[in-house]
Design brief:
four-stranded antiparallel sheet; mainly beta; 21 strands; about 250 residues; single chain
Length: about 250
């Protein structure tokens, strides 16, 4: 696991993990705690790095790999289990390994209460859960403690949104706008006051600075810049936030 400071081109930290573990994803909290999904032989789950970044402790065991990890404001940890078609949750204050399925049934499907290969997940401040429903080409919104979802983007939405091709990540910004990694369309899309539109990678796939090739995930920094895991180009792309400026015309 490699860590860069924003302004450095050379990594400041290279964290060595168990050589047998396959690390699938990383989630960093606001206070700097690092959680990661892993598989090791026949076990899967989520571990947390200790404060000295040299050891890790198990915080959650699952029946298959966690494609994505999210921790909400109430200290609950979420895991999307893509090959079991569900999202599970556990309280980090619970010392037992008691998990609860909060989205999906464990079987693949396209109804409002089912998922098919869920990928990225995001939990907002209302504890509503957004899921990138990969094989169903849609983004599902599960309101708090509700088993049935609303399709907010992609296939099956009751509103005019945008067609998606295997979305892998969903992020909300501070204004509640959705940002979606549209994996097989090689682009990042978002919604705003005027609906959905393409943000990056809008001219097909490629390796130029304004193009992507099979993007997998994205994240914001505290300045509003966007980082994208550009999978097939083997790189991390940073898209700078540019504030609009106005000048008075004489």
């Amino acid at each position: 696991m490699i860590v860069w400071l924003n302004t450095n081109s050379v990594p400041i930290t290279n964290i060595s993990l168990n050589s047998s573990e396959t690390v699938i994803n990383v989630f960093v909290t606001e206070v700097g705690d690092i959680y990661f999904g892993y598989t090791l032989n026949s076990t899967s789950g989520i571990q947390k790095l200790t404060s000295n970044l040299t050891n890790s402790v198990s915080v959650m065991e699952t029946d298959s790999r966690c494609y994505d990890v999210f921790i909400n404001k109430d200290n609950y940890i979420y895991c999307s289990i893509d090959d079991h078609h569900k999202v599970v949750r556990k309280s980090l204050n619970d010392t037992l390994n008691s998990t609860r399925t909060i989205a999906g049934t464990g079987n693949a499907g396209s109804t409002s209460y089912m998922l098919h290969t869920p990928n990225g997940i995001f939990v907002d401040t209302n504890i509503d859960l957004y899921v990138a429903d990969y094989e169903n080409n849609r983004i599902q919104l599960f309101h708090k403690e509700q088993p049935n979802a609303i399709t907010v983007a992609g296939s099956g939405s009751l509103n005019i949104t945008i067609m998606l091709n295997h979305p892998t990540e969903i992020v909300l910004d501070g204004n509640g706008y959705l940002f979606i990694v549209d994996y097989r369309n090689n682009r990042i899309v978002r919604n705003g006051p005027n609906g959905f539109y393409c943000l990056f990678g809008c001219n097909g796939c490629g390796s130029a600075a304004n193009l992507l090739r099979i993007p997998r995930s994205m994240a914001f920094d505290s300045f509003g810049n966007i980082y994208v895991v550009d999978d097939a180009n083997h790189r991390i792309q940073k898209f700078h936030l540019i504030s609009n400026s106005c000048s008075k015309l004489n």
